[in-house]
Design a protein that fits this description.
Number of helices: 13
Organism: Paraburkholderia rhynchosiae
Number of strands: 12
Protein name: Amino acid ABC transporter substrate-binding protein
Radius of gyration: 19 Å
Structural class: alpha/beta
Shape: globular
Order of helices and strands: HEHEHEHEEHHEHEHEHEEEHHHEH
Strand content: 15-25%
Helix content: 25-40%
Keywords: Signal
CATH superfamily of one domain: Periplasmic binding protein-like II
Length: 299
């Protein structure tokens, strides 16, 4: 019930359940891909960050979902040449960023690049024997279609099979793949949402893949003013403290950090050669620093 409450609250605050501002007076009309069932918890935080940024920029906006959900490749194509959406939050990737308006501030302070593994519950002992990258290369990971994470893992010499998100959970359960790396803030709520349909899956307890990556706001080619406003507001939200207050109190972030117990994990670091020059210049203040600890929301 708590999970549902914070998802609904965040979606409502960002205009998902009701228009944040009347269309007739809004400075911007934002359209993003339809949120897939089960992905609402991820969208809630990104939309809350967007709302904080737009408020800090003193900008009014309306927001709605497109009629259809989109795979990453189609959504990026729509931003470049279509007209059905003008906003997407997805992983930084120099190939995707080319030609689009990109807000160069990580949405989740880099936590998407902290990858824990969804595995079968009965295979933890097998992963207890993994001590380094060479050991991990003996196993097969699963990743989504068109994800830059697939390329990062393959470049590190890891074996990767690709499929759709729902199929990857089923493939893990069936043993067709050994593990399914997810961002630390993604894995726990996804398994919670599937506790009835995937009771044999869990988050592996002692390993962490770590590389520099996170979601950025990608804005349509024809909407530079929207991108500029989000960036200006995001910067202001850091200065006035509103972004960090959201990050340090939001259940989506803090519950995952408690559950992950990152300080006790064996870290395997990978390079991310797909960062753009702009990505590499993002100031350290926008990245969570290791070791990461959860904040006591009751204090």
């Amino acid at each position: 019930m708590q999970r549902r409450s914070f998802v609904l609250a965040a979606l409502g605050a960002a205009g998902m359940l009701r228009r944040a501002h009347a269309v007739s007076i809004a400075d911007f009309h934002i359209v993003h891909p339809r949120i897939r069932p089960g992905a609402e918890v991820h969208a809630a935080f990104a939309l809350a960050v967007l709302d904080v940024a737009m408020k800090a920029a003193n900008a009014t906006y309306s927001i709605r979902q497109a009629d259809v959900a989109m795979e990453r490749g189609r959504a990026l194509a729509e931003l470049a040449d279509g007209g059905s959406i003008n906003l997407l939050w997805t992983s930084m990737d120099s190939r995707a960023e080319s030609g689009l308006n990109v807000v160069p501030i990580p949405v989740n302070r880099g936590l998407i690049g902290y990858r824990v593994f969804v595995i079968r519950k009965d295979r933890q002992a097998e992963f207890d024997r993994v001590g380094n990258l060479a050991d991990l290369r003996r196993l097969t990971a699963g990743q989504g279609l068109g994800w830059v994470d697939t390329d990062i893992l393959v470049d590190a010499g890891l074996k990767v099979d690709t499929s759709t998100t729902e199929t990857l959970f089923a493939m893990t359960r069936a043993g067709r793949i050994d593990y399914y790396p997810r961002g630390v803030i993604e894995a726990f709520p996804e398994l919670e949402a599937r506790s009835q349909t995937e009771p044999d899956l869990t988050v592996e307890k002692r390993l962490l893949l770590k590389y520099r990556s996170d979601f950025l706001f990608y804005v349509a080619r024809h909407s530079p003013a929207l991108a500029g406003t989000i960036e200006r507001g995001f910067t202001a939200a850091y200065k006035n403290g509103s972004y960090m207050r959201l990050f340090n109190s939001h259940p989506y972030i803090q519950q995952a950090l408690v559950q992950a117990n990152l300080r006790e994990r064996k870290v395997i670091e990978l390079d991310n050669p797909y960062l753009s020059a702009a990505d590499r210049k993002i100031p350290e203040k926008y990245w969570e620093q290791w070791p990461i600890v959860a904040h006591d929301r009751t204090a």
